[in-house]
Write a structure and sequence with these properties.
Elements lengths: L1 E6 L3 H19 L3 E7 L3 E3 L3 H4 L11 E3 H4 L5 E4 L2 E5 L4 E4 L4 E3 L2 E4 L3 E3 L16 E2 L4 H13 L3 E7 L9 H16 L5 E6 L9 H13 L2 E4 L4 E5 L4 E4 L4 E3 L2 E5 L2 E3 L1 H4 L26 E3 L12 H19 L12 E8 L2 E7 L8 E5 L2 E5 L4 H18 L44
Parallel strand pairs: 1-2, 1-9, 2-5, 9-20, 11-18, 12-13, 12-18, 13-14
Antiparallel strand pairs: 3-4, 6-7, 7-8, 10-19, 15-16, 16-17, 21-22, 23-24
Helix pairs in contact: 1-8
């Protein structure tokens, strides 16, 4: 019998469990293959909803479902914590000391926030003036704080990259502008967006678009800010060079890191517990029979649900090849797409991969109907509809019509690559040359 073990039953793990059961139902029924899922938390959290909960769009109970209801019945589910992965023995060791041998392991344990990594963040002012929205408890506490906020300095700070859903902090700033406008107190609130990046976002074309929106919404942008410490008692955010940003309410995006057991598994991850992963085959560099999906990887793709969905489709094909003894293919291209809420019932959509930055155009077909890198009401409706897609298409591992796993160039205005310097025609002898430095 071939044994597949999946660590994590969040977005990525649930998608893979459902996809593999669809693919191997007959082999599972015949006792030729088994699938075991390990996760310590019985709740499944709809993480995209955490961004909207502080603004009253969701209640906490609307974002949580029992994980057991989302996993197929042909999967064995174990509620336990992982102590380590013994890659040499092809076994997962649980905290209770028991071992789960595997022929193929899928790591889908995502990421976790680590606010205690930043000096002072969880000290005086934590959950009073300093909040996160990357946990259910944090988002709920932030909702209550925003409801009582009557004016002052609101600071949104990204401590360091990478983080889950890289656009979410910007979305929070845009939604805060909308929220305080609707409350009639926007003129009494100064919103500042503080980032370690040299622009509003990681992709240059998208960064220019989002920086324009920040300016339009009177949101101050502070770039290249390397967060060193938080003084919650006095409302000060400090960089390592002692540059300070004052706040009355700080919305922090804390340091993110991988699961703790990765650090206890020799050779599996880096210093922040991200699993060292081939960016195209999605195999762990530690061992060929370990595949990694979703936020747990160290690949240069966004840590977002759409990425996990695209990875899952291609990973399922590679797992089939691996179990059959065939070579896997470097098929994943870093495809990601994301709706970016910009407030006032509008949103942007971006679609990109390792090689192509977000560009303008239409999605998912040449005729649209959705515009890319442009604010629209239709994109906002798409963002709201994603919740239905998440529960009914994405988690069950079903295809999303018109959206392939590898990024399509259809409908995108992708600029042609620059011609090689050697191909440029030399100026005619009679033409004056441009002086150097002009």
């Amino acid at each position: 019998m071939q044994r597949i073990v999946i660590l994590g039953a969040g977005t990525a793990g649930t998608i893979m469990a459902n996809r593999l059961v669809h693919a191997y139902r007959d082999r599972i029924a015949g006792g030729l293959l088994s699938i075991t899922v390990v996760d310590h938390d019985p709740r499944h959290l709809y993480q995209p909803g955490l961004l909207l909960l502080p603004f009253g769009h969701y209640q906490p109970e609307q974002l949580v479902k029992p994980k057991q209801r989302l996993l197929p019945k042909h999967v064995r589910s174990i509620e336990a914590r992982v102590d380590r992965v013994d890659a040499d023995a092809s076994a997962v060791v649980l905290e209770n000391g028991s071992a789960l041998p595997y022929d193929l392991l899928i790591i889908a344990t995502g990421s976790q926030i680590a606010p205690d990594e930043t000096d002072g963040m969880t000290g005086p002012g934590w959950r009073e003036k300093v909040f996160d929205f990357y946990s259910l408890e944090g988002a709920t506490a932030l909702r209550d704080a925003l409801a009582g906020f009557q004016g002052g300095k609101l600071v949104v700070n990204v401590v360091e990259m990478p983080i889950k859903c890289p656009v979410a902090p910007l979305e929070f700033a845009f939604l805060a502008d909308d929220y305080f406008t609707r409350r009639g107190i926007r003129d009494r609130v100064e919103i500042t967006y503080v980032t370690p990046l040299d622009g509003a976002f990681t992709k240059a074309t998208c960064s220019r678009e989002l920086a324009y929106l920040l300016d339009e919404k009177r949101i101050k942008l502070v770039t290249e800010f390397s967060t060193g410490r938080v003084d919650g008692a006095n409302g000060k955010l400090y960089a390592w060079d002692e540059t300070e940003v004052p706040f009355d309410l700080l919305v922090t995006i804390p340091v993110h890191k991988g699961a703790d057991y990765v650090g206890r598994s020799p050779g599996l991850g880096d210093e922040m517990n991200w699993v060292l992963t081939d960016p195209h085959t999605l195999q762990a560099k530690r061992a060929a029979n370990i595949f990694v999906i979703g936020d747990a990887t160290n690949i240069p793709a966004s840590k977002a649900g759409s990425v996990a969905h695209f990875e899952a489709e291609l990973m399922a094909e590679n797992i089939e090849r691996f179990l059959a003894g065939r070579a896997v293919e470097p098929s994943f291209d870093g495809h990601a797409n994301c709706f970016i809420e910009t407030g006032h019932r509008k949103a942007l959509l971006i679609d990109f991969n390792y090689d192509v930055e977000p560009v303008r155009g239409r999605f998912p077909f040449a005729w649209g109907p959705v515009p890319l890198l442009k604010e629209s009401r239709l994109n906002h409706l798409g963002k709201l509809f994603f919740r239905w897609i998440y529960w009914h298409l994405l988690l069950p591992g079903r295809p999303i019509p018109g959206v392939p796993a590898r990024m399509s160039r259809t409908g995108k205005r992708i600029p042609a690559p620059p011609a090689p310097a050697s191909a440029a025609p030399a100026p005619a002898a009679s033409e004056p040359r441009t002086p150097a430095g002009v």
